[in-house]
Amino acid sequence: MKKHIYIYSPSGAVRDKAAFRRGVARLKTLGHEVEIDEAALASHLRFAGDDETRLAAIHRAAASGADVALVSRGGYGLTRILGGIHYKQVAKAIDAGMLFVGISDFTAFQNAVLARTGSVTWAGPALCEGFGVGGKADVADGQDSGEKQLPDDIMEACFDDLVQGQGEGAGWRQNRETTRIASNSIAASAINTGATTEFSVKKAVMWGGNLTVLSALVGTPYFPDIKGGILFLEDVAEHPYRIERMLTQLLHAGVLGRQKAILMGQFTEFKLVPHDRGYKLQSVVDWLRQQIKVPVLTNLPYGHVATKVILPVGAKTDLLVEGRDALLFWGHS
Fold this sequence. Notes:
alpha/beta; seven-stranded mixed β-sheet; 15 strands; 30% helix
């Protein structure tokens, strides 16, 4: 079924115009009607237009009547304009059925909307990184295969389920972990050692997103006050010690200990160095499990990766864990 998708740029300037064009073409190939905001390719400093331009783009998206408002890309820029967003207008559009979808810097918008209105938005792809992939795929020996890359089929299937009103959940298998951890979280400990365990969380608010952006909202009116929620996190190009430092901020702010579960998504594109001396991302996960009595799950297929599910920010969600297998369920959207 054809859907009306509105493309706008509330964050960083679109530098890869080819990816932008490929993304638009891909959505049209999938049968959708694509409307491009008048300032989608604007540029001011590193931003997609000055603050007023990007605020106006958000409000045009909300007023467009589209089925989906999809950001062109992430980057940086939303935190500085959160005070100028007309949240009632955004909530009205969501109530009318509009799906706001994005990733990375879009975390600021999503959590601000949740904090100010309680409305649900969607953590998923952006136009360029999700639908605008292209170029040639490499074969194992490093030679050009001559085949164009296509958007990830799982990502596209999840997006299609969402826009068709059929999205209801996501399942995945956690990492196989062997490091011993503290026993203060029975569920997490059993998961870590590979033992069979079952636990569930019912009707908890799903929230979170990019860890860097989320931690920058702490102490502001745009940080949701969620108790008993399911918090999901991801990041890109952040060394594990920086990830731990941001988690420490959330820990000391009293955020992590109040949740029902912490879901660690994909943390990619960082480089370990010799003086880490064995300190790695798993070290951070082990440390976190020693700090809280909340299950910490791993390998959620969401983040700055091709294969990712789409997650509701602000929706009541169930979580079921059986051994390494985990399932989120939020019902039909």
